[in-house]
Records
---
Amino acid sequence: MYSQNYSLNSQLKIWMITLLLMIVLIILVGGLTRLTDSGLSITTWELFVGTLPPLTSDKWIEYFDLYKAIPEFKEQNFNMTLNEFKIIFWWEWAHRQLGRLIGLTVLLPMIYFTIKNGVWILREYSIIFFLVCFQGFIGWYMVSSGLVDRVDVSHYRLSLHLFIAFIILSLVFWKFLKLTNIKINQINIKLNLIKFFLLLLFLQLIIGAFVSGMDAGKIYNTWPLMGSSYFPDDSVINDLFNFTVFDDQSLVQFIHRNLAYLIVVLYFYILFFVLKNGNLNLRIPIFVIGISLIFQIVLGVLTILSGVKMLYASLHQINSILIILSTLYFLYIVKYKKTIY
């Protein structure tokens, strides 16, 4: 019986880590799809078709003609050639295929494990499948916002799409951790403090998506000042309390910067308690969080100073994955006991 449980546990861990790596990859590709302005290159949802790319010249022309009908081409890319269109098409096509593959990687093993081991598998893991399906719908909901009256997608829908991606990533990683034999590590620190830290990280993800979706990183390419002052030159403090604050490029970048500073301050507050506690098992995880935070700020500054150079912007997003996962790991080892099937 023990060997059977151990074997199932190993298989489930392989399933979760495979999913985790695939989700990291799709977040990376999704970020590059945004940075290359490729997200509107496929103007139809193609839920059950579109798995194969265009294989003939006529099919390429058909896709290109559909793209020519939207505002992004008419107002921004009207000089684009077919070969240039193919470049942005491939990014969006790859992003969609990864989404389909992730859906199958959730569904097929879940069916197999449920048939072999019981309905509890379905209860435990079906939420991942539903979230992946919902994410596909949100992806199209985001794309559709840029097909009629805009040259870009809604930054609100973009942030929702990224937020759900990180929710799925976090859920898969948490379930993987539950399959491990990591032991509990008591520490004299309130868990709510760590949860609040994690909440701020997710809030920063949302604001970061606003920055990306509005191209807010391409203004005020100075640091630590924004222009000639700490607060944006073209704004006033009262603007922060307007309903339109998240539609203002300058203020969104200002909020993103200062939320990063707040996160770092809170990190050092948590670090103080960890070092004071003297638990050696917790020092490496908390230092990993700290190093990734410092790296994230450096990448953020380089992204701003470079005028959003693709390399820095992409690394900035990739490193956010490390911050979230390392924080989840830290929360887990502080809170949870050994859990193994």
---
Amino acid sequence: MNRTVLVAVHTGRDAAVESARLVVDRLIDAGITVRVLDSEAGEIGSDRVEAVPGDPGAVKDAEVMIVLGGDGTLLRAAELARPAGTPLLGVNLGHVGFLAEAEVADLATAVDSVVAGRYDVEERMTVDVVARLNGQVLADTWALNEVTVEKQERLLEVVAEIDGRPLSRWGCDGVICATPTGSTAYAFSAGGPVVWPEVEALLMVPISAHALFAKPLVISPRSTLAVEILPDTPCGVLWCDGRRRFELPPGTRVEVRRGSEPVRLARLHGVESTGAPFTDRLVAKFELPVQGWRGRVRP
């Protein structure tokens, strides 16, 4: 059976391009067909790959998509992989890299795990978002990490709503509606809670709200969240995963609910620094102090 892997890379980094060449050569030497995006093929410089346009057709029939870069690169890759249901395997070449499965030091081992089929696939919840103004749809899109309604210049005046009922009015810099995966991204920076990825929930986190009640909220995944920009407030902007941007005139209503399609992530077997429990990832990424921990007393 012919196996195909799509390799995507942050071509703005020399180290990432060198890593991509290693991945390409190792996969091809193992008898696997390798595709790369045509916008990246020149940087990779291999005549043994198949260059394809950067659209959802790039992942058609691909077993997995290996992504070399930071979380931003993986979020870009998710836009291609999600419609096809193709799993993503992230190799972190950035800073924190919560979405990545492997670090660059484990690159060869990670590729060997793909070749041997030693990985599982987990599904990460997404959110769908629709923005409307007087019945007209201004945006209809999705996000893996978060959807944010943000100010452009002056404070926004918004009313937050849960399941068709008003919750509170905030004068604020914005409101974040996040998934558990996104809880360690923008929502975390804004004071939101860390939510383990297997927890099914939606988060709403106001940004610098001028109000007594402006706490982060953890809400049922079956709920619909809404943020209404009041008519007498300045224009806002909608960001989805920090990548897709839409203007929001005064009076716009933004609705967020659980996504219709998940993003699938590959999780490797038997590699110490990859496939780690989420608790270990938190400790490693934030360098949390755990000295003195003894663990459970075993009989």
---
Amino acid sequence: MTVELRHLRAFLAIAEEGGITRAAARLRVSQPALSRTLRQLEDHLGVRLVERSTHHLALTVAGRSFRDRAAVAVAAVDDVLTPGQGVGWPLRLGHAWSALGGHTVTLLRRWRQAYPQTPLELLRIDDRTAGLARGAVDVAVLRQPVELPDVRTVRLLAEARLATVPADSPLAGRAELILADLVDQPIAVNSETGTTTLGLWPNGAAPATVVPVANTDDWLAAISSGRAVGVTTTATAAMYPSPAVAYRPLVDAPAVPVLLAWRHPPSHPAVPDLVALTREVVRD
């Protein structure tokens, strides 16, 4: 049997939807047809990709590994077949939050001046690799290391951590804060893409209440409404100034490294130019 693009799309739909029924509805095919397509793919690869039972579906270890590679392959085909790619092919720069902080606008403007024939698209994608793992971007700004095959990274800088508190909080009146100042407050945490964990605090001295959030907008809303406090970096203060919150230096928390990541070989011919310009911008 020859594997076709439809086999990869079928598997990715199953992985994303978490079940045959929802994936079949999304693809507008019958459940038996989708199950046959999955079996054909598994037979061709010689491995089980999905563990199935009456009430549960989960990817196997092989399935999780194959999902990332299949997503990249499908994204690459979609890029090649997108009309107009021969002229003005956009270069996609992903980030999960706050991009490059105060360097963001400088990078975008300098890129436009230096490479007007190649649009640079800044995309916020709320996952740990900012879309790099599934081929949604060509380059990604990361604030935590990731393990992906054929990915190159370069460290750009380190960002100081800040405490973020409601503007009317007594803590907002201080020039700087320490981790212990936040212990008796609920802490807003994005466990998917954030860099704040209870591990920042010493054992037994962490905040007792965690307020889960899904993205920076939800995080800011939780803090500005007085439901929580937060920990972030200088990049967020630069990208999301707000009269409803106060950003204060968190002097005893470690800085956060900022990485630039891309696949090798690059998915866009202008990736080396973006890497070089980004390094230059953050050094200025």
---
Amino acid sequence: MARNSVKDWNNLHYALAVARAGTLSGAALELNVSHSTVLRRIDTLEKALDTRLFIRHPRGYVPTEAGQMLMNAAENMQDQLDLMVGKMQGVDEALHGTLVITTVNTLIPLLMPIIRGFQAQNPQVRLQLVADRRHLRLEHGEAHIGIRPGARPTEPDYVVQPGASLQNTLYASQSYLDECGPFTGRDQLDGHRFIAPIEAYDFIPSLDWITREVPEEQIVFRCNEFSGFEDAARCGVGIAALQSWCAEVRPGLERLIDPPPEWQTKLWLVTHRDMHRTRKVQLFLEWVKEALAKLSPEVGVVP
């Protein structure tokens, strides 16, 4: 009886990526291909060998005994499969393709120098930044890494790491202060106008304070974008609660009070467990954490 053989060795390369990542999604990110491409390659290889190579569990792929034998043999074929083994070992050849990062608009000025530094060191990785108030679904592949301010994300199967604590306080333009007079403390609200969000943001302490403590008639402007708070304050509309790094990186706003410790906003680095240990994701996470740790105490507090 004729033995079955592998006619497309590239299919074995896909199988090794699945064995290493434990999921189709993780292998797809590592190889920079679609989820369906990885699945098709695995199916083709199993049909060619007439052998099941993986047990499909709801949480991932586990090699069968035959699959593990094939993986072990392939790992020893270094002279024929140098590129494949190089990728499994995390060498530079694996650092290519696209990495999608999601965050909110107001964090872009803070993140751009960090992103540029990473890009300069890893030019073969193409970065995409998706700014959206909506939390993109990492489990559906909408993004690989989320950088989120506010409450700690609680989605199942997410890996959540602290990034930094950003200071927040109250700001206004000099023209506003010339018009309305000085603001001497949070208990001195009379005669002042305030800027607030349209929706409640009780997970951001400074905005929650405005919602709870400032009389409705003194809230003269509302906006659904954080960047709008800063723009309105610079134009003299009123007093806004802003992140210090955002308000002080450009001229035009005056800090009114020292940042209250209880107004710190946590910044979280979020990945899906299927993607978390891929080399591109790990490299970028380490880069961001190191950069955030260097934040000036004037604008951020390292956790």
